[in-house]
Structures are given as structure tokens and as C-alpha cells.
What we know:
The protein is of the alpha+beta class. Helix content is 18%, strand content 40%. The protein has a single domain (31-115), classed as Cupredoxins -  blue copper proteins (Immunoglobulin-like, Sandwich). It has 1 helix and 9 strands. The radius of gyration is 20 Å and the shape is elongated. The chain starts with a helix and ends with a strand. The model is unreliable at 18-24 (pLDDT under 50).
Amino acid sequence: MERAIPVTNTYMRFFLVLLLLTACRKQLATGVVDISVTEKGFEPARVDAAPGAPLTLRFTRKIKETCADAVDVEGDPVRHMLPVDVPVEIKVKAPPSGELAFACPMKMVNGAIVVVGH
Length: 118
């Protein structure tokens, strides 16, 4: 009987550590990622993704007065206009490492796809 308690405690500790690790694991973006343009800027401003993951960034401008009336995505020569309350989809591929930046034309409002887990 004395030995059963330490074994049980060991399993409980293992289970709690496993539970904490699972809860702390970052969720990686897949498929379509909704990004709103608000008073705070791009929300979310950071999108975590796996290396090389294909993503569709769906920008929706929620406010009228902002310098983010368009978005420039790093490596994309097209400036994408963002009309108010009209979703605009931009297909991108996460880089193998590092990040892929996006910003308003004045570079005052910005965000990035950040590669994690490579």
C-alpha cells in the first residue's frame, strides 16, 4: 500500500505536465485566416503558421477612418484595396522560416505571418 501512493503521484505529475504542455501549444493557422482592420490596427496582427503552409488571408476593414484602406503583402507587387465591410482574400504561402510581413501603404499599421515549429 505504501508503494501505490508514490506511483499514483508519479502518474498524476506526468498527466498534469502533459496537460499543461498541450494547453500551452500554439495553434497554427490553416486555411482561411480572418483579419479585421479596426482602431487597433490589424487584428490579429500576428498569425502563427507552419513552414510553407498555404493560407488565405481574409481582410475585412471595419472602420472608415484609417490609413489601412489597403494592404501590401511582402513579395506581392499588388496593393490590395480594402473597402469598408467587404472581405478581401489574399492567397499566400508561409515562408520556410522567419516571417511574411503585411502592412498599410504608409507602413504605420502592420502585421506578419510568423513561422513556428520548423
